[in-house]
Design a protein that fits this description.
Blueprint lengths: L12 H4 L2 H12 L16 E5 L4 E7 L2 E6 L12 E5 L4 E4 L5 E2 L6 H7 L4
């Protein structure tokens, strides 16, 4: 079987010129802050929305295998809400009508963001 060789153009000076600045920027954004130091990004207040319907958490346990689980309330077992979704941009919290608050639901921020209606 003949080998195939992919020809890729070498980097150019124009393409490499911004790399040091980009490296410094992403390093600063990814760094943990020292106590009392200002954050590299501005703080943004949390937001709250109501959502009637179910949330599904998707996982990929193996290559080419997807699984989905509907998030339910640990107190009443409800799965359709209406949920009160609160997010501080790091963690999303689901509030059930029964009064229970769910934080350990395993949902990614993007999974919640995609299903919420525009307000």
């Amino acid at each position: 079987m003949p080998e195939t060789t992919e020809h890729v153009a070498p980097p150019t000076e124009t393409g490499e010129a911004p790399l040091p600045d980009l490296t410094a920027l992403f390093t600063a954004l990814a760094a943990t802050n020292m106590p009392g130091a200002a954050t590299p990004t501005p703080s943004v207040g949390s937001w709250r929305a109501r959502y009637a319907g179910s949330f599904r958490h998707y996982t990929r346990p193996a290559p080419d295998v997807w699984a989905a689980e509907t998030v339910g309330c640990p107190e009443c077992g409800g799965k359709d809400g209406p949920w009160t979704v609160t997010c501080d941009w790091h963690r999303a919290t689901l509030g059930c009508p029964c009064g229970a608050v769910v934080r350990e639901h395993g949902l990614a921020f993007s999974e919640i963001w995609l299903v919420l209606p525009e307000t």
